[in-house]
Amino acid sequence: MKIPFTRISLLRVALLIAATAIVVLIVPRADNQSYSYELNQPWKYPLLTADFDTPINRDSTSTRQMYDSIEANFIPFAKRTDANNKTAIDRFMTSVRPDVSAQEATLLSRLVSQAYADGIATPDLYHQIHRGNNTKYRIMSQAGDEPGTLHTFDGTHVRSQKQAFEFVDSLYAHATGKPRHELPAGVARALGVVLVPDLTVDSVNDTKYRNQEYLSVTSAIGVIQKGQRIVDRGEIINQQIYTNLNTYTDMLRSSRSENARHSYFYIGQALYILCCWLVLYLFLAIYRPKFFASLRNMTFLVTLITLFVVISTLVFEFNMQAIYVMPFAAIPVIVMVFFDSRTALFSLLTAVLLTAIIATYQFQFIVLELLSGLAATFSINHLSKRSQLLRTAAITLAVYSGLYLALVLATDGNLRQFNPQMLLMFVFNSLILSFAYILILIIEKIFGFTSMVTLVELSDINHPLLRRLAEEAPGTFQHSIQVSTLAAEAARAIGANTQLARTGALYHDIGKMESPIFFTENQHGVNPHAGLNPETSARKIISHVTDGLALASKYKLPQVIRDFIAEHHGKGITKYFYNTAVNESPDGHVDRHLFEYPGPNPRSKETAILMMADCVEAASRSLKDYSQQSIDQLVDRLIDSLMADGLLRDSPLSFHDVETVRQTFKKRLATIYHTRVAYPTIKKTPEEKQSAAG
């Protein structure tokens, strides 16, 4: 079968693609480029497993502690020079002998040797040793170019060059009894030459051994095998998991398969989201073709669902548990107010499945939202009062709380995992649901829909337009009341919208207020048609349709009510005046269009019921005999005439529906015009009769 690509079809496809794209772009990414996670926060993506072997490194806290421990306990390296060799000391003794005695020269030589034995450090090494907590240092003895024995020395007695000079000066003065700092000039000059640092920083060995100890910190402590779990949805990201995630994502970015993995993830998410939308589209196309054919209806439904998914995602990004604040139960309530329960439930299913892609505990989320949505739907079959939303909100809160408790017990077998914050989320959810009426009003304004609540409000006879009708055309008002009763009974019998039929019937003849005297039910002995030709009279009668539409526009009545005004006569003719014109015409030829209502013919069950109820109720007033037989004949004749004229051809009524409406009218009219029993009078005695006569 060839499917024509009409403009509506293309727009529906564009709507589907746009909705899919919006949801794909807004939901959190679970690919390597889109992970967004924080330490000590829950992991909000699905289960993450390794695509390849991944080393397990120490977490940053442990690493920092180990580095600090190494730095605190590391013994620095130094190296000795040959500055204190025997040749240098011999030259020193030779240079000082002219200034001191041989005995003093020997003393000075011994003191210099002792200073070298304790160690004379370069300034940087001296500060490194004495500023740290560790006063030890290590020296690697050299044997050619190969490292030799490692010696550890206590650096407590290591001196700087200045301290070594003062050490020799102090001991020399103490041994000889001479004042300090009064060495002969030649001796002081010789000491300055011979006392040079013999200990310096060994940067080569220091770096080598530090790096060897650092390896124990930086080396992996294990391996996450390919396919092994890294982190699961909802798991708190501790320091070790945080480190593993950083390692894994870094390896992903450097892997060659990054682009392919990124594309595959997008494709997988898009396919899932597209399938969810397609299920809804197929349901509507097969079981709700009239709804599916309306671009306005489809735009409303897709926008509503997409809006819930987008807001839920944004809320989830802010707080994972806050997703349960979103009142998904409001979706079926809103859809059912304007359409039907099956469409409402499929809309709920689509919204929940789309949002489940981001939920932390998907099974819990789907169960809670679907069952609470079902409870809300069943509790508010027909929304006619705002107070019903309060009851629905209370029921939804009870269902949420009970289901959550049941899931916790069924999953863990105890209440240790019971989170009281979830109950707070459910309370906020129910509070928002109770204000769904505001959203219903907004939708009415934007999309031009009419809710049951609006219909109930319009059916109040204190509405300004109905009050005006009762005052200016009381006969028409009474007629509208009777027609609304008939139409509501018939609508209930065939499963149509009872409230819509009742409300539409109340307003169908409001145009008669412009010239009420021209209509029989408002006349009191004077008939203004007596002096008019049939064409003029027909024009006055027909004008109540256009006048009614003008009033409806002035009072801003919904389009569904205007349809009742326009369609209650369809493309029918004013038969009384048309037949009169034909009879008065010499040749019997009359322009039929002059006597024809503007229409269109009824296009819904409710407007078709109104056409039949209006015709039957008006004609029933002319009956002289209200027996069941005469009522049955009247109803059959009028409805058969409407069908014969093709006025019901465009309505979705089946033959069975028409027959049900027919029988409903007969029963209702028989009840209205039932024969009343005459009340007996009290018989008078002869004396009373004579007294009355006298």
Biggest beta sheet summary? 4 strands, mixed
Would you give the CATH topology of the largest domain? Hypothetical protein af1432
Number of helices: 29
Order the strands across the largest sheet as they lie in space.
5-4-3-6
Uncertain runs? none
Shape: rod-shaped
So what's the CATH class of the largest domain? Mainly Alpha
Helical content band: 55-70%
Strand content: 5-15%
Give me the secondary-structure category: mainly alpha
The pLDDT mean sits at: 84
Number of strands: 8
**Named CATH architecture of the largest domain:** Orthogonal Bundle
Give the helix/strand layout:
Blueprint: H1 7-26, E1 48-49, E2 54-56, H2 60-73, E3 77-80, H3 86-96, H4 102-118, H5 123-131, E4 136-143, E5 146-154, H6 161-176, H7 185-194, E6 199-201, H8 203-218, E7 222-224, E8 229-231, H9 239-254, H10 258-287, H11 289-293, H12 295-318, H13 330-338, H14 341-355, H15 362-379, H16 387-412, H17 420-434, H18 436-447, H19 452-458, H20 464-472, H21 474-494, H22 498-507, H23 534-554, H24 559-567, H25 575-584, H26 605-620, H27 628-644, H28 655-672, H29 686-693
Parallel strand pairs: 3-4
Antiparallel strand pairs: 1-8, 2-7, 3-6, 4-5
Helix pairs in contact: 1-10, 1-12, 2-8, 3-4, 3-7, 4-6, 10-14, 12-14, 13-14, 13-15, 13-18, 14-15, 15-16, 16-17, 20-21, 21-22, 21-26, 21-28, 22-24, 22-26, 23-24, 23-25, 26-27, 27-28
Which features would summarize this protein structure in a list?
29 helices; 694 residues; four-stranded mixed sheet; Hypothetical protein af1432; mainly alpha; 3 domains; 62% helix
